[in-house]
Specification:
The chain is mainly beta. Helix content is 0%, strand content 58%. The chain is built from no helices and 17 strands.
Length: 169
Amino acid sequence: MTTTGPSGIGFVNFGDIGRLEVNGPIVTTGSGARGFNLYDGSLPEAIFDQITTTGDGSVGVQVSKPMNSLTVRGDVETHGGEGMSLVKGKQTKLKAIALSVKSGGELGRIAVKGALRTRGDDVTTFEVAEGGVVDEIALGGIEVLGQGSHLTDVAGQVPSLDGVPTPGA
């Protein structure tokens, strides 16, 4: 699944779906592009091969609602820094991020068999906002490949990331 252009979308959910499986890469290119976003509605389980976004303000995965299980068989990778993105119908400045769990977002289990990776300056690879929850996490690695960038920004609830490989940190 490939999209190009500003605020290009791989898959954004607003409705109710029981299970989603995408058996191929999601590749989005453009300022504010998104790979996968559980924005509203319900989606208990999602499985992806890999997710790659390119563009300032691009997001690999963003979860804003409760979800039982999210699996990515490969990497979740973003290329970009700060840029404009369409949020609730308005252009807003955002920083690129590989995985974001917003307030109200809950993940029972997330498994990324590859790495969470950002390639941009002054961005964060993995964030969980205050009010966001991750019960169980299994990552192949977390990488940050940009000047002034950070591996994590965790204000919500997340199990320990001790033992997760962090090459380049």
